[in-house]
Amino acid sequence: MNNMADKPLIVQSDLSMMLDVHSPSAELARNDLLAFAELVKSPEHVHTYAITAISLWNAASAGIGVEQVLERLARWSRYAIPEPVTFHIREIGGRFGCIRLELHHDDQDHYLLTVSQERFAREIMARKQIAAMLKVAGNGFLVPRYQRGELKLQLIKLNLPVDDRIPLDRGEPVSLAFRSVSLRGIPFVLRDYQKMAANAVLGNGEPGTGYGTIVLPCGSGKTVVGMEIMTRLATRTLILTTNVAAVHQWIAEISDKLSIQSDQVGEYSGMRKEIKPITVCTYQVLTWRADKAGDFPHMRVLKEGNWGLIIYDEVHMLPAPVFKVTAELQAIHRVGLTATLIREDHREDEVFSLVGPKRFDIPWSELESKGWIAEAECTEIRVPLPRELEIPYAIGNKREKYRIASENPEKIQIVKDLIENHPTDFILVIGQYLDQLKTLAKELDAPLITGSTANARRDELYRLFREGKQRILVVSKVANFAIDLPDASVAIQVSGTFGSRQEEAQRLGRILRPKQQSSHFYSLVTRFSSEEEFSANRQKFLTEQGYTYHVEVWE
User: Fold this and answer.
1) pLDDT given for residue 11 in this prediction
2) Which of 79, 121, 169, 486 has its CA 20 to 30 A from that of 250?
3) Are 476 and 432 in contact (CB under 8 A)?
4) Quick check: 46 and 21 in contact, CB under 8 A?
5) Among 399, 473, 410, which residue's Cα sits nearest to residue 437?
6) pTM for the model
7) Sign of dihedral through CA atoms 457, 459, 462, 466?
8) Residue 487, C-beta contacts closer than 8 angstroms, at least 6 positions apart
């Protein structure tokens, strides 16, 4: 029997939990908690977790039911579990599995929806929009096949998750395998956690498996996990990602590590429209339309490709129109890849319903401790505002104040000094405002990459950076997502977009690839300005993730 010192968890009535990381049992408790709770913050001494409806349903979809959750809490909780917590877990967590969607063997046009609790059936039928999709049939309801996704979407909004047990289509076969040695001459070995992530999604191939979301830190090789799933399914695959640079990186990684002919891999973007057995596409081209009232002409790529697998890269960025089409693609193997399930539009439940539940998650700190991603030192530098800008700042509106602070000209010299302090590092200077970035690029004699930079030029600059021929890049927010720059070890942020949690995770992720030395993340903030308010969000987020964070005043 554990003594109190070995009970590292405190469970509170608001469904939050605090874990004493210095307890001898902390690691064992953490492993138990990750299955059914979300890590909220992880500073030095006490980590905080939260139990949510989605986290309980994620656990249930992985076979960890209500009683197992309660047993784990009882095992590690220092005090009695509050009654409201037990009630909530049983009431909300127990809903997964009550509503199942299955094949109807006697009707090829419909699926069978079964509801094990009568009160849920009454609630469902009381909703006119949902009831219109259903037809009573014996002990369940008939659902038209084409409304499978829409029904799941409507029910999740009622806190009624659907356990989708319908087998997925295999799709047209495509021969795929990893090379033992990449074309770059590097021996390829799948990391243990990458294999575990693929296993978690594919399971045993039985109904209820083959779809889901994988959460891995930036720099940990999400692309490789996607390719591992591709090789196991060996089927026509559509990969959706955030921009053309990411498209080119996916294609380069596939060509480098998989034994597949180059003419079997296609790019579908604003510049090229190829549909091949393996096709990589941008979200932007899918959501393009001639006018706001028009159709999305390129959505046919999603609908008509005879895909056996769809990979949603950076799934937390999935645009609303793609959600709608994804609702129609529920018979296809699908995988979401992301470093964070945080969506600024709070549509995490739709990712759960349409792409799939979270199947695998591993924190930054664990991969950092094993050397799979670099240690990172985060430093905020407070910069004085020049006297001639104090009056314009004082009389400006909120947005004007933020811009004046962000474009503080004093930051230019500090960037130069930081670069001098890192004479051998590969450095990204990141910002929000183009005038500021143009000035920095000129002062540093470094190339600038913005949204208007031609894709060919972007690819060329990224290539030169990777090959060690260009040590400094000045980049706008186009570099936030899906850009693989493994040698970057210093990031200097001169301005940002109001402290977005997504942005901080992605910008830090640019320098977390494994390397011999530590990585450094600098953020320049104008002292006594509105930037300090947003920097507090940044500091809170990064320290919650377990990173050390220093604040220095530049005199």
Assistant:
1) 97
2) 169
3) yes
4) yes
5) 473
6) 0.77
7) negative
8) 426, 465, 466, 468, 513, 515
Q: Alpha-carbon distance 545 to 171, whole Å?
A: 40
For the residues 11-21, what does the mean pLDDT come to?
Answer: 95
Beta bridge partners of 285: none
Question: 273: which residues sit within 8 A by CB, 6+ positions away?
Answer: none
* 245's tokens: 């640079």
Tokens of 518: 């530590």
Least confident of 15-24, 341-350, 506-515: 506-515
> Are the CB atoms for 462 and 245 separated by under 8 Å?
yes
**Is the Cβ–Cβ distance between 444 and 416 less than 8 Å?**
yes
| 249 vs 77, higher pLDDT | 77
Query: Rounded to an integer, what distance in angstroms lies between the CA atom of residue 417 and that of residue 431?
Result: 17
Instruction: Indicate the DSSP class of residue 433.
Output: -
> Which residue carries 């030395």 as its tokens?
517
Place of tokens 């090379």: 179
The full 3-state SS of 388-420, as one line of letters, equals HHHHHHHHCCHHHHHHHHHCCCHHHHHHHHHHH
DSSP 500: -
pLDDT tens, position by position, 413-472: 999 999 999 999 999 999 989 999 999 999 999 999 998 888 889 889 988 988 889 999
